[in-house]
Amino acid sequence: MKADALRGHLDPMILAVVENEPLHGYAIMEALLERSGGELDLPTGTLYPALRRLERAGYLSSEWSTVGGRKRRTYQLTSAGQKMLASGKQEWLTFRAVVEGVLRPGQA
């Protein structure tokens, strides 16, 4: 999938992945890959800056833990993140309807 196609949609997708349970960065990458049927194979250089940006904005919170002797940061959705996710889902539905209306005229 082209990176340009993700522009504006990556943040809600990340928030959706951590909606039900806190996850560390690598688990978020794996969940995005799995949920997208292998289409979203994000490099760490894309994911981790997005996680930091979402945390700075107050949509995610994080905490450090040690698992198997390795430190990792686990991210979870905040109440502001829940509101942002709901908004992102609605924006996606609107965007999808607009694009389908243009690409498939005459079909409902």
UniProtKB/TrEMBL annotation:
Stretch forming the signal peptide: none
InterPro entries named in the record: Metal_resp_DNA-bind_regulator (IPR052509), Tscrpt_reg_PadR_N (IPR005149), WH-like_DNA-bd_sf (IPR036388), WH_DNA-bd_sf (IPR036390)
Keyword annotations from UniProtKB, A to Z: DNA-binding
Residue span(s) of domain Transcription regulator PadR N-terminal: 14-86
A GO molecular-function annotation: DNA binding
Name of the protein: DNA-binding PadR family transcriptional regulator
